[in-house]
Amino acid sequence: MVEVRLFAGLRKGRQKVYQMESASVKTVKDIMDALDIEVKEVNILLINGFHQKPETEVKDGDVVSLFPAVGGG
Amino acid sequence: MANAYYEKIARVNLTTGEITVEALDVEVAKKYIGGRGLGTKIAYDEGCATSDPLGEGNKLIYITGPLTGAAAPSSGRYMVVTKSPLTGMIACSNSGGKWGAKLKYAGWDAIIVEGMSETWKYLNIVDDKIELLDADEYLGMFSEELDDKLKEKHGKEASVLSIGIAGEKQVLMAAIMNDKDRAAGRSGVGAVMGSKKLKGIVVKATRTNPNDVIASEEALKAANKEVMVNIRENGLTGGGLRALGTASLVNVINSVGSLPTKNWQESYYEKAEDVSGEALAEKFLVKASACHRCPIACGRVVKVDDKVVGGPEYEPLWAYGANMGNSDLAAINKANMLCNEYGLDAISVPCTIAAAMELYEKGAIKEEECAGVPLVWGSTEALIEWTKRIGNPETELDWLMSSGSARLCEHYGMPEVSMSVKKQEMPAYDARGVQGIGITYATSNRGGCHVRGYTIAPEVVGLPVQLDRTVTNEKAFWAKTFQDLTAVIDSMGLCLFTSFALGAPEYTKLINAACGTEYTPEEVLLLGERIYNIERLFNKAAGMKPEDDRLPKRLLEEPVKEGPSKGMTSKLNVTLPEYYKERGWVDAFPTDETLERLGLGEYIGR
Ligand code: SF4
Question: Is the peptide bond before B464 cis (omega within 30 degrees of 0)?
């Protein structure tokens, strides 16, 4: 399983967390497609707490976190 | 020629009650931009560095920048420059709201307050008239009530700056409040006001813009139009901050395993979601709010019981949340409101309570010292009650707590429990999993602080580019560049948050249009570097030692226990020498050559 966590505005019309079969998604982009999230909507993309790209492959047990434009200080 | 300054400074001597008007030295102002830069130059030259911060020799400089209140995004900023009683070094606390813009519209570049009054006073400024009035009847009031009362007296168009009970009592973490819930929060600037018995400054202005001193209104309008495109098109400044405020960072920083938890003993908080920006928006948010002329609107307005008040930023949300092991959001909102009411730094105060909770856990603070409210992790009663006690100290432990975590932990023989730099508490980003921010903390001239070089932007948020947060490469360069650019933005009188969308070229356009200068972006960054260096010279004169550029031992020696940054420590031993090299400093201070290069030759040998 891959756990997908969505934050801030990406939660609109979606769940906060999804569990996805790792066999059904190869990359983060596949996850985003499945959830109907466009690449330009995502500002911070993490796998297990480290910055990655949409084309990065995911594997069983990964936690994928997607954020839109958030920040401050 | 118009140059964006009113070329007028008021000097108020509280010992004699005398108020004089001085001409601004425009050449000097240009060399240091204004605000933070010029304020520090004045503070240094007038001997604040070697003064007792709570004594007669220290001065308070309330200062605007050339762009304060002007047609530029988020231009409502003013700064308070003085010697900090918390750190014993330079203090420059920056605030938004409306007050700073009104001071500028009243025709003042700066107000310098010196000496000490025997009885409580406040200043009333109406355009070019300034009078000193008795403040006795306003003592002991909360900021909001005081704001209302002073407006009743001086008119609702007035803007009020004041200290709360904490400032009156010279609490070392006392803030200066303006417009009810905006704060020049850090480094204990409110205590300096308290030591002088100055309760507040009320400002009214007939002008509604500073266009009469702008070099070219047309050029500024064009520059503003241009930079506003960047502000609008950037996801963060164009909507992200309005939607969730800075509080959106709770989940981001936790997700990268860098949310300090239980006084930095851990770096990942299981219950972060409960105290996140998302939860705040869902459960408590009434609306977003904005400072003067700000299109970004990061401010929060929330409900606390039946009141509608200013809501917490990311920092207090973290400090009263994860850092205390507390997941009760309603309690955080309330504690944040109390900080505003008492006039307290909503970063240092909760961080000190968190340090006290660790001291209590370790058995250093005993239950019998706690006057009925033990300092237990996650206790909402403790975080609320101890905030009130710090704001209005009575018992011995109250007073110790109100002097900040460094003095508190030192007292109990456990200095390493204080998560501070130069005696000021560090904010909400664990420097073990994010290498660049550790340089900012260690070398910040005002002690533990994130807004003196916010490398979190590239290291976590991906602005302007995404860096690998875990490596040390090039972080010294980034820290220095951000520090210098921040010094420029502060000194101009703009909000730092504009820098998510703007860079040196855009700020240069705004300065040139407003001041009639012809700087290149490189020259503007050099001004920032000059400012950073004169702050360092102030600290040197104040007695700073090379070993003050440090991080708490915990960050260097105790690897992160759990979460995405597990196993990491700060590599400051690698980055600090690189940083000094970037700066042209040896043993924490600029070399003569560096001072010459920066046009600070007059300070060689001092
Ligand atoms: S971005 Fe936030 S803090 Fe900055 S001026 Fe705007 S509302 Fe105030």
Answer: yes
